[in-house]
């Protein structure tokens, strides 16, 4: 399954606002097993493979807690390459005593959930083979069933966990938005297609037939504003485009939608209708 390579459009990095850089850095290194890629006074870029940034954490001044009732991050989701690697980090988290928020079998994947010290949501998951996904008329069947934790833990290796697998990537992002309709219209213009709907309050979208590169929901954010600049949560996330032509086509379509954007070095900064900030980057730059 190559859903996170060209010609697909996918999420590559999530930039988080945190209250204490050292506290967050300790969490992401010790609990998640990421490594430092780049660092500055109040910002650290974290990686699994030593090359590509997955999560960027930035300490904000006069930080205030996120109420959870605004638009922004619901959770980021790190995709591990196989069930054994998921079992390894699962076993590590259990024995570390760090609190987990849930564990689910989604039919297409198995996942565990937790939050960082600032309550930024994190999903760690491994996909099942695409051959086992049930597809009907463009919809991929998913569910939220209890995880068979015992079966998963039997898959763990005997080598003690120290680092997350270097093959770990940003599998998807799940966003809180103010309206589903406007959000769907916006992301469709970028190139995403609906894969699964959950009533009128949640939508999963992707490119290339993945079960979802982006989740959208209004469970706690219907009609809500975006967070304040110093409110903890997501600052931005990066969408990776396969080439300049695909990116420019998306920007042109968004202009007709009335979306403004700004160029920053080789990237473009765009805001969705819920004021979630996206960074448009290209794979081959």
TrEMBL record:
Gene3D superfamilies, alphabetically?
Answer: 2,3-Dihydroxybiphenyl 1,2-Dioxygenase, domain 1 (3.10.180.10)
Domain VOC positions: 10-127
A Pfam family matched by this chain, by name? Glyoxalase
Q: List, alphabetically, the PROSITE patterns matched.
A: VOC
What is the protein named?
A: VOC family protein
What organism is the protein native to? Metabacillus endolithicus
């Amino acid at each position: 399954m190559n859903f996170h390579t060209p010609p697909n459009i996918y999420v590559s990095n999530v930039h988080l606002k945190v209250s204490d850089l050292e506290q967050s850095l300790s969490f992401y290194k010790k609990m998640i097993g990421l490594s430092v890629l780049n660092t500055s006074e109040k910002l650290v870029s974290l990686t699994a493979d030593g090359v590509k940034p997955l999560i960027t954490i930035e300490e904000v001044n006069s930080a205030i807690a996120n109420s959870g009732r605004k638009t922004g991050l619901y959770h980021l989701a790190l995709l591990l390459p196989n069930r054994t690697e998921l079992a390894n980090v699962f076993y590590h988290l259990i024995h570390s005593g760090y609190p987990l928020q849930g564990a689910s079998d989604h039919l297409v994947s198995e996942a565990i959930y937790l939050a960082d010290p600032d309550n930024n949501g994190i999903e760690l998951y491994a996909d099942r083979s695409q051959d086992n996904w049930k597809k009907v008329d463009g919809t991929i069947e998913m569910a939220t069933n209890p995880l068979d934790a015992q079966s998963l833990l039997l898959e763990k290796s005997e080598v003690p966990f120290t680092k997350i697998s270097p093959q770990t990537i940003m599998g998807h992002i799940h966003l809180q938005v103010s309206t589903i309709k406007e959000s769907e219209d916006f992301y469709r213009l970028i190139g995403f297609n609906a894969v699964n709907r959950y009533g009128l309050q949640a939508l999963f979208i992707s490119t290339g037939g993945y079960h979802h590169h982006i989740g959208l929901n209004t469970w706690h954010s219907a009609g809500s504003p975006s967070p304040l600049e110093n409110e903890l949560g997501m600052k931005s996330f990066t969408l990776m485009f396969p080439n300049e032509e695909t990116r420019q086509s998306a920007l042109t379509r968004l202009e007709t939608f009335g979306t403004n954007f700004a160029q920053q070095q080789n990237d473009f900064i765009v805001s969705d209708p819920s004021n979630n900030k996206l960074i448009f980057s290209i794979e081959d730059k």
